[in-house]
Amino acid sequence: MDSDYLTQSPYTDPGPRLAPLVGSTPLPRDPAALAALVRGVLLHREEGGRFGYAVPEERMREDAESRYAEDVLRILGERGDTPLTEVREPAARFVGTCRDFALLLCSLLRATGAPARLRCGYGTYFQQGLNDNHWVTEFWTADRGWVLADAQLIGGLYDISFDPMDVPRTEFLVAGDAWRACREGRADPDTFGVSTVPTIKGWTLVRADVVADLAALGGVEALPWDGWGLMEKDGADVTEEELALLDAVAAAGSAAGRAADVRRPDAVRRLLDDPRLAVPAEIVSHTTYGGERAVSLPVPARG
Fold it and tell me: How far apart are alpha carbons 137 and 140 in whole angstroms?
C-alpha cells in the first residue's frame, strides 16, 4: 500500500526499542488489540486516582515531555521487562497525556502495516459542557476510510456510549471542525478549553490547535504545549488575511478525515509550505512544569 501515513515520522519511529519489549510475542495486527496494548502500558498523568495510585511528582513532570515514541519505549523498558502485550501495574507504566496514547498507537499501527496519523482537536466526552483539548489516532480501513480511535478510553475507565475504536466525529471534533463551528457562529469559542487549566480556552487555543493538527497531518506530531508561527500571535494582531489562511487550514483538516485515499492531501502539502504555518527548526514549548523554553526539532522533509 502506497501511503505517506505508513512511514514513521521522527516522532512515531519506535527505533530499536520496540523489538526487546515485544520479545517472542509478536505484536497483534488488529487495531483494537494494539489500542488495548497501549492502554495497558500507559497512564495519563491525571488518572492516578482511577487506579488508586499516587503518581510520583517527577513522572508527572518528566514523562510527558518525551516527544518521541522511542523515548516512551525506553522509559517502559526501564520500568519493567514484561512484554508490551502484558498489562502493567501503574508503577511500571509510562505517565503521559492523551497525545502519548495517540502517538504510541500510531507508531504501532504503522509498524504493523496500517496507515495512521495523529489528530488534534476536542473530546466532548470528558466534562459536560466542555469541548476538551485532546489528541486521538486516525487509522485507515479498507471499507470505511479514516476512522478515529481513542486508546485512552479502552477498558471502561470512562463513561462513554460509543466504541473507542470508532469515535463519532460528533464526539471528537478535529480542530478544523471546531474552528469552522466557531467562525460560523455554531459554537462558542469559550466552550473549547483545557479541563485541567480552565484559563486556557477560546480563540487562542482553537487557533493553535488548527495549526498543530495541520502539522500532525504533515508528520510533525508536536507536544500539546508547543507553539510556532500563527500559534504564537496575540489574537488582536491576527490579520484578516491570516484569518482567511486559518480558514483554509481548517477546511483542509476537516476534509482530511473524509479523504478517499491514504496519501497526504495536496492541500496539506501546500499549506505546510507557507512560512506562517510550517514548523520551524526551533519552536517555543510552554511546558506544564518547566516553564517556557526553546526546543530544536527534527522537521521531516515534505515531498
Answer: 10
> Running DSSP on this structure, what letter comes out for residue 111?
H
Supply 151's cell numbers.
Answer: 486508546
> What does residue 169 show for φ and ψ, rounded to 5 degrees?
-75, -5
Cα distance between residue 144 and residue 158, in whole Å: 25
What is the identity of the amino acid at 293?
R
* Cα–Cα distance for residue pair 15/150, rounded to 1 Å: 23
Are the CB atoms for 33 and 140 separated by under 8 Å?
Answer: no
Question: Do residues 236 and 271 touch, judged by C-beta distance below 8 A?
Answer: no
Residue carrying the nine cell digits 511546558: 287
As beta bridge partners, residue 173 has 122
Note the pLDDT tens digit of each residue in 197-221: 999 999 999 999 999 999 999 999 9
Region 95-102: what's the mean pLDDT? 98
Provide the β-strand partners of residue 139.
Answer: 116, 147
Cα separation, 298 vs 251, in Å, equals: 27
**Can you tell me the distance from the alpha carbon of 170 to that of 25, in angstroms, rounded to the nearest whole number?**
37
pLDDT tens by residue, 51-89: 999 999 999 999 999 999 999 999 999 999 999 999 999
Residue 222 · residue 279 · CB < 8 Å: yes
The pairing of strands 192-194 and 197-201 is antiparallel
Q: In the numeric block, which cell numbers belong to residue 258?
A: 473524509
